[in-house]
Amino acid sequence: MEVSEEQRKESASYTYWVREVTGDAAPLPVPRKLSSEDISGLSHPPNLGSVWNRAGTWEEKNLNKWASQRIKELLMSVDSLEFSSGKAEISEVSNCVGDAFLVTVRNKKRVGYTYELSLKVKGEWCIGEEKMVVKGHLDIPEFSFGEVDDLQIGVRLTEEKDLQSKDKMLINQDLKMFLQPVRAKLLQFEQELKER
Questions:
Q1: How far apart are the first and last CA of the chain?
Q2: Does pTM top 0.85 for this prediction?
Q3: Could you report the per-residue pLDDT of 97-120, keeping only the tens digit for each?
Q4: Which long-range CB contacts under 8 A does 191-195 form with residues at least 24 apart?
Q5: Rounded to 10 degrees, what is the CA torsion of 36, 38, 40, 42?
């Protein structure tokens, strides 16, 4: 039994072949003008990004200037520390290099940063019977968003000519005590960055 070409077309179940409206098909949509009540009833999520980016697709904002200034302000506000044989303070933020940014992706705000720091420190220690002024640097090689808890500080003494190795080790250990207050200030910076 051969099926003719015409019968095969009629029995095809794909909607692509249907060119005429049948009784069981949905009616065609009829356009209508929206009223002001319809428009006010629509919910519009708040926009985080710029006015031009209503969809909130991707927008990146550079926060380097603000972040560098704020890190310097916060670190200069660290109090001086008293040790068993002396005291020291941060005298200057000599190097503060990095990037900070705010990214809006799919209407969600995300922040991040990566920085390197070098802090000048100055202190007085009682070594033997005399007080010595010691200068040095605290180096924080790299830290970024969410990694402040893993912060590490390296100590470099600039004037160590008259120091014995045990005195150098003592001063290095004392200066590494700046880790906690520096970490606290960087956590404060991270929180302020999130709130921007």
A1: 78
A2: no
A3: 999 999 888 878 889 999 999 999
A4: 192/70, 193/63, 193/67, 193/100, 193/102, 193/111, 193/113, 193/145, 194/111
A5: -150
